[in-house]
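Hey L., structure's done. Input below.
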Amino acid sequence: MMNPLIPLLVAIPLAGAFLTMIVGRFITGIPRYMALTTLLATAFISFWLLLAGEASPSVYIAGGWEPVNGVPIGIHLVHDGFSGLVLCIISLIGLLSVIYSISYMAWYTSENFFYALFCLMIAGMNGVVLSGDIFNIFVFLEISAISSYALVAFGVEKNELEATLKYQVLGAVASFMILFAITFIYWSAKTLNIADIRSAFSTGDRGSHYVLIQVLLLTGFGLKAAIIPFHAWLPDAHSSAPSPISAMLSGVLIKAVGIYVIIRLFFNMFVITEGMSVLIATLGALSMAAGVFLAIGQWDIKRLLAYHSISQMGYVIMSAGIGMTLMARGIRPDVAALAITGGIFHMVNHAAFKGLLFLNAGAIEYSVGTRDLHEMGGLAKSMPVTSATSFAASLSISGIPPFNGFFSKLIIIVAAVMGRFYLLAALAALVSIITLASFMKFQRYAFYNREPDNIRKEIKEVPAPMLLSMITLAVVCLLLSLLALPGVRDSVLTPATEILMDQMKYSSQITGI
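Output:
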């Protein structure tokens, strides 16, 4: 089914970026409102498509090039249960980050560059999520990556430039590996369309290069997603960037251009094998455990949060790996579905609570002028809204009910136990306890720990646009708990799980077979 709204999710932010640059040269102060309008439009379309979504994927074929004898020759943009969820995450966190930026970016000059790059990054991420062929995933990936390199370095201080250099070098390595894998795919499958590659791989003889393609793509997109051992760039990049960009990088970028693509390709393009499934589950478990141990010793708030992003993404990758392993063995499809649902649920939850925590960190830095926990304390009285919202986000990431993090972690742990992955279930529970300890430290040193002295009395709460974004995300953290209810879960999360587990459902819509 052709849906004319789908290409607007890429076209509107692209147009917003170019218009912001042109109009911003003549009218100062207008770029922030243009970016806000752009993000409002994409958010409206994203949620409209998700809520009015049909049972089967909807496809937009650029230029109207219909498949010929079942061979897709045009550029396909595909909207289904999984991509629809990720698009909603991108547009919601993007919209709230732009609202937050209205006050926060008053520190910086050249706001028209900032908002133009922001819109470009959104366009790139939406393009990655919607692309039905692997080469266009690469093209949109580069649009979002190059924008994010510039945004990390936006303050042009020594630390920011060093962080973005590291990010660019490792990003270039990842891009090279992805492009190398795409070359191998085209050589062996003679096509770049994901659905068509799937049919070529499932019928033809899969030689040794098949494993090489999988390893290259897992490494390339693993670097983009910053899973262990490909995580070296993330703590510097996320801590150096302006806080609304940290919220975007951690809340959505590593998911859209990393986690999402790994899950999409390994479920919908490759034939699932047990060896690769176990490798993915192992990498997830490693990221989960190593990330939290690296986080607990940090005293810079944003570095602490960055390491927790690695750990929380480990939950998503591990649960996807558990689901893949059970599917490869051909046993317990109900448990495989539960594991995949838990991973997708946690990915959505992470966008909300980690986005909020980075906005909290930005609010503290905005008012106090430091990111060092040693130099804080007693902020609960002078910054009550920041304190309350960060407390909600801390409980959420630590998996304390009634917040959303509890329910997604519970589903993942239950699925691991039911699938007889007892070690992974125990590790997930242990990591959650250590996460709680880490965020108790954050709460204690930032908001309590000392009586408000004269210096603390001069500290004021942040401006209204920043408060609005933080309060909205805190409410979202509570509302997302409703996804654990069977009726809500079936309408929002189940379509995403089904499109991953039923490979024919994805490919038949594109190839027309």
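DSSP finds 22 helices and two strands in the chain. The mean pLDDT is 87.

-- N.
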